[in-house]
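Explain this one:

_____
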Amino acid sequence: MRAFIFHAPGHASWDEVPDPQVKDGADAIIRVDTVTICGTDLHILKGDVPEVAPGTVLGHEAVGEVMEVGGDVRTVRPGDRVLASCICACGHCHYCRRTRYGQCLGGGGWVLGHTIDGTQAEYVRVPFADLSVHPLTDSLDNKDAVLLADIFPTAYEVGVRNGAVGPGDTVVIVGAGPIGLAAIATAKLFSPSRIIAVDPAQSRLDAARAMGADSVVSSEEEPGQLVADLTDGHGAEVAIEAVGLPESFELCTRVVRPGGHIANVGVHGKPATLHLEDLWIKDVTITTGLVDTSSTPMLLRMAAARRLPTTSLISHSFGLDEMEEAYGVFAGAAVSGALKIALERAA
């Protein structure tokens, strides 16, 4: 088969590699029909995730058809159309029993495109299939469903839920890329009074408006002043960091009010300064996290019922064998206006 292979920071290519094989009774082999690119993949290519070994197939989000399963798999069978989650879960360890699948100690967690071969390929082996793949209904098409592999559960669990968004809150979302836009959509489920989106790109601020942000501001202007003006100087109850840069995290610490929550979602490749000399007295809660995807079944039901805006996030489509071109468009989002990219197997 062909797959997108990480070779070294700054170097990856669409190459021919051996087909995946069932290695364990809990495995499923999935033919990839639709896949997407994550900002985390760009972090890997920049060298921000050094544990990714040269030769690894990238990607951790996909929709496809089950081709083969191991003897222990009970929830899916060949021919089923499924979502491959970005997180795999053994289901038995200390953390899995508490639905903290991202911290799985039994060989799961974030492994696809990280410590084992991932989904940006014609076929992928998914371990622990009973908890790591989700059957799909006909009411949800591939482009909608693939957004439930990562960005929607991540935005909801790590951003909105960890940030404790509540009715009447002012929520500031720093970063209006796919995660930030999904955070806007899922924050609105909790009826905040105001959502403010911050991003340097006008195209993404426009997308944030379309997704339901009440106010938008360029990060190159004075977002802190806008937040102060809109909150009578109090600041936001919730600030969600959805970029992964020191300055975006530090902005969150400046716009949050006393007693508020900062939910860090972005993948950071460099240290950020934590100004405890200012924050210690403000009763601020700071959370970090890797998504657990425990919310995925619920979000899939909502998407199937048209309660989540999904396809509006797909800005560009490519064939699966156009992976290198698609990466260029996604990495150059400031010029291309790319939000989320869908790559599909040829019919």
In short: Residues 155-287 form a domain with the Rossmann fold fold (CATH 3.40.50.720). DSSP finds twelve helices and 16 strands in the chain. The two ends are 16 Å apart (CA to CA).
